[in-house]
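Mods, move this if it's the wrong board.
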Amino acid sequence: MRRHVAPGIALAIAGGLLVLLGGWLGLDLDSVALLGAALGGALALVPDRGPLAKLSGFVVGFALAWVGYGVRAASLPDTDAGRAVAVVLVLIACMVVAAVAQGRLPLWSLLVGVAAMVGSYEEAYAASPSQFLDTSPTAATTVLLAAAFGYVAAALLGEAIREDRRREVVEERGPGDDLDRRDESVVA
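Not the wrong board. Structure tokens:
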């Protein structure tokens, strides 16, 4: 557990630097720095699938949520029913993508992407749905920048967690168990 401290501190420092960088560059990163860094960090730290699968799932989920906002703005009423339809459509789309990908894109990473877009944009969308084309790119780029910072900082910790998980699997089942190889493919 001690070896997780330094990379964890790196993630915290990256989040702080992100806010400072945003201030220096005149970007509105304050509101999404913690959200993005935390989601990017979680994406890096989950010991499931490789980086390409996790990042691809995140990007696809993010895009599906963004499209969901576009559908809401273009054709759904700004009512509870309209919002409910958008939620159902985005979540079904995520499940369909994960099913079609046959496990290559984990559902959880798509949902993390959805959470990034929704967490960074819902407030701005609710304030002015008609401004979707003007406001959504700003929300998208700022949270993606924050998530990238979090991912890179936490990626330092990812290998240590995978090693710990492999050790736990061996300890749980015992050395030489035939299931060891299958578990390694899950955490790789």
